[in-house]
Amino acid sequence: AGDGSGPVLGEGTGPPAPERVLFPPTFSVSEIKNKQRRHFMFLRWKQQQRKEKLALKKKRKKEREALGDKAPPKAIPKTIENQRVYDETTVDPNDEEVAFDEATDEFAPYFNRQTVPKILITTSDRPRGRTVRFCEQLATVIPNSHVYYRRGLALKRIIPQCIARDFTDLIVINEDRKIPNGLVLSHLPDGPTAHFRMSSVRLRKEIKRKGKEPTEHVPEVILNNFTTRLGHSIGRMFAALFPHDPQFIGRQVATFHNQRDYIFFRFHRYIFKSEKKVGIQELGPRFTLKLRSLQKGTFDSKFGEYEWIHKRREMDTSRRKFHL
User: Fold this and answer.
1) What is the number of structural domains in the chain?
2) Which terms are listed as keywords in the entry (predicted)?
């Protein structure tokens, strides 16, 4: 309009600006009865939370750049790991008692290079295809290991035969509904025997961007975060599966990484891209272990003496309490 009473062309004729979503401090999505509306409002609330978090992060970054060298040190984020409840069995590297125990335990001949590992890998009775392939791939990871398929033969009969044939360790892969779900590791001839729950098994063909087939070189072994006396025992059991002298020319690494009492196994090959850059290729297989029990001696389900048993109701009372 020419008299100025109406809106000027080009002003206020477009779509209104989107309003910023503001939720009251006491807002609770669970109070919304309609399921679709509740889900929609929850997504909007999460989106607003992400925007506020990103804006705060950018603001702090600008402040640190403005302060330069005078900027305060970055705050260490709180995690379950760094808030871990102290375990009285945590091993001190300078503890003479621990050093004496390790020098006289069942694994001492291996660490003194008096014995060479020889591993027997077997399965539960009548294994299916996935378990069979997993055992075959595990045998390519552990040098000097042999796969035998078990058919109705009890472990109490297998163990004496293993000892007679100079095997140093026995690995039994159990399965449920065609999926590997358990691992029994028994050190021969005098034990101990550890029982693990197995999960997240991935064969080589199921791993993305995997490398070529592993070679026959003896791999390096990395053991991470086994800090308690129990953790040391489990770590020494895994170390005793591999020959003590790795062949570095093969560039292969077997890693047992303990985090929150879950043991993650990965098998990699590292590649030198330049003098300063190194890349890694996962070769597989991969799996996750959770310790269920540690038994003295070889496998004995009826009369075995247990050093440690995982009791969920008694031990899992705190998320910050770990045993390995």
Assistant:
1) 2
2) Ribosome biogenesis, rRNA processing
